[in-house]
C-alpha cells in the first residue's frame, strides 16, 4: 500500500516556489544571485497597519475568531466592494481566509465533483490547474495568445464551454502577464456567460489596485450584474498593501457558496490569524495613500524592465497594463546555444542557463501554460532590475 494518496499524485509543486528556493540556495552558497521569481512587493507594510496589529495584541485579540472572519472585517470588506466596485454585499456573503489562495481553494473544493470542468485562460497563475485537480475537477486551458494581449476571446470561451463546465477563472490584471481585461473585453466574455447559466465565474482581483497608464479596472459582476448571483469575487490585502506574510484574503458571493466554503474552512485551518485580521481591517478602513505611491513606483519599474528587455537580442516584451510582472517571448532564441554550451531547446532551458550563467532567476513560461516565454517580477529596486536586465542582455548577446 502506497503512503501517498492518488490525489496528491495528480499535482506538482509550485514552480515559482521551487525556483525561488533554488535561488536562495545558490545565494547561500555565495553566488551573486538576483531573484526575480517571487511575486511579492518589496515595500514594508504601511506603518498604520503595523500599529493596528500591535494594538490588537495589546487589546487581547489573540483568541479564536469566527471561522471565516471577524464581523468588523466583513463589514469593511462590504464597504470596500460598494465604494470601489459598485457591488452590494452583506457580511453573510463574505468569507475571509488565510490568503487569497485559500479562498480559491475553498471555492473549488466546496463545489467540484469528478468530471466537472474549469476553464482557465493561459498564461495562468501556476496554482489554478493544480487546485482544480486536487478538488477532483478537470482543467480546460484556453490559450490567450500574445498577439491578443494574452487575453482570451469570446469565441474561444464559447467553444470551450460544455455541459460539464462548472467554473471559469478570470484574473485581471494577470499573473504572469500583467494583462488586463478592460470593460469592453469583459463585456464580450460576459455576453457569452449570460448564455450559459450553469457556468460560475471566479474572479481573481488580487492585483486590482496595481494598474497603469489609462487602464481602468473592472470586475465581472460590476460589468454584468446578471452574473453576480453566480460569481465569487476574490481579493485580498497582500499585493495592494504589501501584506503578503500576513495571509489575509477574502471573497464575496452568494450565501450558499459562502456557507459551504466556511464549512470546509471549519474542518481545515479554522479562522485566519486574529492579529492579521485586525491589520487587514486597518488596511481597508485607513488611509489609502500607499496604493498610489506604490503604483507610481511599480509603473516606473515596469517601464525600466520593458525597455531593458526589448534591448536584448531575440526578446520581445509587451507592455503590461498592471500587476508587477512582464512576460516576454523568446521565440527567436529557441535553438540557439549559450556561451557555456547549453542549447536553448525551450523556455525551461533558457531559465536554467540564465540562472547558471548569469545568476538571474526567472520563471519559465511552461509553468504558466504558454511557451516560449518567461516571467519576471519587477517587485524589487530599480538598481537590481537594471543589473538584471544588463545580465540578461549579455546572455542573449552571447547566444549563437
TrEMBL record:
GO MF, one annotated term: L-aspartate:2-oxoglutarate aminotransferase activity
Annotated keywords: Aminotransferase, Pyridoxal phosphate, Transferase
Domain of life according to the entry: Bacteria
EC number(s) given by UniProt: 2.6.1.-
Record Pfam families: Aminotran_1_2
Aminotransferase class I/classII large domain boundaries: 32-392
InterPro entries: Aminotransferase_I/II_large (IPR004839), AspAT/PAT-like (IPR050596), NHTrfase_class1_PyrdxlP-BS (IPR004838), PyrdxlP-dep_Trfase (IPR015424), PyrdxlP-dep_Trfase_major (IPR015421), PyrdxlP-dep_Trfase_small (IPR015422)
Reactions catalysed according to its record: L-aspartate + 2-oxoglutarate = oxaloacetate + L-glutamate
Cofactor(s) the protein requires to work: pyridoxal 5'-phosphate
One of the protein's GO biological processes: amino acid metabolic process
Family: Belongs to the class-I pyridoxal-phosphate-dependent aminotransferase family.
Subunit structure comment from the entry: Homodimer.
Listed name of the protein: Aminotransferase
Organism for this UniProt entry: Paracoccus kondratievae
